[in-house]
Write a structure and sequence with these properties.
By secondary structure, the protein is an alpha+beta fold. Helix content is 38%, strand content 16%. The protein is built from six helices and four strands, in the order H-H-E-H-E-H-E-H-H-E. The chain has a four-stranded antiparallel β-sheet.
């Protein structure tokens, strides 16, 4: 799949097979994220990969607390990646966002489903979230987003209509 096709046809996935993605695929997706552009080429984003299902369940509960709903915000994905940036990095949120976007496009090119899950910053501000940051030695970092990954179980959503979203300026 070429880059243009991946960028124009990628859709978020919210239904995953329980089969874990292959390590080679994960490493390729992570490389896509870590090679995303960053302000002043600082490349300061960090990615924490969690594939332990008990740990994912615990982290999902933290996200659900912030979400305010008793659901699994990670949709049963077998791999959850948390993207962090230094708290004092002025371009951090933008840089971390590019990491997630690049990971999602890379995953799609490999026929792996992905979805950006919000509330990462807030879940790691909770007491239990702070314990995870200490465990991962990321006390001076802030969460940007969660990127869930796995093999697609159900068909992905249809492409949205793009009309009326582009405004021609300068004329």
């Amino acid at each position: 799949m070429d880059a243009i096709e991946a960028l124009t046809t990628r859709r978020s996935c919210r239904s995953f097979k329980q089969e874990q993605i292959k390590n080679e695929e994960l490493q390729t997706i992570l490389a896509c994220g870590l090679n995303a552009p960053s302000g002043k080429n600082k490349q300061s984003s960090k990615i924490v990969v969690v594939q332990n299902q008990e740990e994912i369940k615990e982290l999902s509960k933290l996200n659900a607390i912030i979400f305010g709903k008793d659901v699994d915000p990670f949709y049963g994905a077998p791999t959850v990646c948390f993207i962090f940036v230094p708290k004092d990095e002025s371009n951090g949120i933008k840089d971390g966002s590019l990491v997630i976007g690049a990971m999602q496009t890379g995953a799609y090119a490999l026929n792996i489903g992905s979805c950006w899950i919000n509330r990462c910053k807030e879940m790691f501000e909770l007491e239990k979230g702070q314990q995870y940051l200490q465990k991962w030695h990321l006390e001076d970092y802030v969460g940007v987003g969660c990127c869930i990954l796995g093999y697609v179980e159900k068909a992905l959503p249809e492409k949205k209509i793009l009309e009326n979203r582009i405004i021609q300026g300068g004329e």
